[in-house]
Amino acid sequence: MTTILSPGGRADPRPTGIRETNAAAVLGAIRQAGPLSRAAIEHRIALSTPTVSRQVTTLIDLGVVREVPELTRFGAVGRPRVPVDIDETVLAACGVHVGVSTTTIGLADLRGRLLAGETIPTPVGVPEDVLDFLADRIRAFLRRRPERGVVVRPGAGRPAVGRGPTRLRLRRSSWQRSPCWRSTG
């Protein structure tokens, strides 16, 4: 489930499904190659014209993308193709990395550019207390940046050191019993 937090901190949970998957595909195409016309989006992701139009309209209504009429090419036959692009001023994504010794909270625009970050020592304690402490820190971090709504997608990865086949998984016995640890498989 995806949660969108308004600048005031209110949560708006939204279920995921086909529409959300299509919207994510449209947004991904725009993010990678935008600004793009609706027709260019159709060709990139192989969705129908009505589906792309519906998703673009929804993303515009949500403030995620905007039309860029100044980039419209005129002179072709038919209706002008108005490109759409990500509106980098409305939403941001918040991410948290809990490391062995430091925890980093970051805020990025929808193109992935870091807007702000904060590094703190990783708290020690039982998982529930650590997660409560971090949730408070994240809320305080976001309150200092009220100019954007923030998209939050809860998730967790198992702690590890290294990369590829030499990767070593770290185990903390108190975390093995937490819902956060169990959700990572």
Topology:
Layout: E1 2-5, E2 11-14, H1 18-33, H2 38-45, H3 49-62, E3 65-67, E4 84-86, E5 91-98, E6 102-109, E7 114-121, H4 127-143, E8 149-152, E9 160-161, E10 168-169, H5 173-176, H6 179-182
Parallel strand pairs: 5-8
Antiparallel strand pairs: 1-2, 1-8, 3-4, 5-6, 6-7, 9-10
Helix pairs in contact: 1-2, 1-3, 2-3
Question: Which characteristics define this entry?
Answer:
single chain, 185 residues, alpha+beta, two-stranded antiparallel sheet, 10 strands, 34% helix, disordered N terminus
Written overview of the protein:
- With 185 residues, the chain is of the alpha+beta class.
- The chain has helices at 18-33, 38-45, 49-62, 127-143, 173-176, 179-182; strands at 2-5, 11-14, 65-67, 84-86, 91-98, 102-109, 114-121, 149-152, 160-161, 168-169.
- Strands 2-1-8-5-6-7 form a 6-stranded mixed beta sheet, covered by helices on one side. Strands 3-4 form a two-stranded antiparallel ribbon. It has a two-stranded antiparallel sheet with strand order 9-10.
- The relative contact order is 0.13.
Question: Topology as H/E string?
Answer: EEHHHEEEEEHEEEHH
> What characterizes the major β-sheet?
6 strands, mixed
Strand order of the largest sheet: 2-1-8-5-6-7
Q: With helices defined by DSSP (H or I, 4 residues minimum), what is the helix count? A: 6
**Helix/strand/pairing category:** alpha+beta
Percent of residues in helices comes to: 25-40%
The low-confidence parts are: 1-13
Approximately what portion of the residues adopt beta-strand conformation? 15-25%
The dominant shape is: elongated
Q: Strand tally, please?
A: 10
- What's the gyration radius in Å? 20 Å
Alpha-carbon distance between the termini?
18 Å
What is the average of the pLDDT values?
A: 77
